[in-house]
Amino acid sequence: MFCPDCLYEYGKGIKKCPDCGAQLVEKLPEQDDDSDINIETAELAEVYDELEEGLLRSMLMDRGIYSFTRSNLLPHTGAIMTVFRKRGIGTVIVNREDLEKAGEVLKDFKEVKKSGK
Ligand SMILES: [Zn+2]
User: Fold this and answer.
1) Model confidence, pTM
2) 47 and 97 both lie in a single domain
3) Would residue 57 count as lying in a domain?
4) Burial per residue of 62-83, b for 16 or more beta-carbon CB atoms within 10 angstroms, e otherwise
């Protein structure tokens, strides 16, 4: 038996959760597959400053593509890692299923950067 609130499993014969008093159920409802824990992600592009990051991500958002930036900053010092080459401030990450669409956005983004808008 399971408590639908605490998600704890209890032995047979127990009907109420000792913790929260909720009615125990035989099975927990299926976990929502849309939870973002299992979403596969892909690296889209490295960005070199906040302006670039903001522009690229707002262009992605315009197309309905969710993105986030994985920072290259070291968590403790705030220093940018410069191991092999000049690094950007971070890498923009998108869901793998959006990668193709995001690639198109990236092309537009590079055009915009070239034209210096
Ligand atoms: Zn409970």
Assistant:
1) 0.57
2) yes
3) yes
4) eeebebebeebeeeeeeeeeee
Domain that holds residue 23: 1-29
DSSP letter for 80, please.
Answer: B
Taking the centre of ligand 1 as the mean of its atom positions, its distance from the CA of residue 22, in whole angstroms, is 5
The Cβ-side half-sphere exposure at 48, using a 13 Å CA radius, reads: 5
**What's residue 76's pLDDT?**
56
Give the pLDDT mean for 56-72: 93
Distance (Å) from CA 57 to ligand 1 centroid: 41
- The SS3 call for residue 67 is strand
Distance CA 89, CA 41 (A): 19
Task: Quote the ligand 1 centre to 36 CA distance (angstroms).
Answer: 25
pLDDT, position 84: 45
Number of domains in the chain: 2
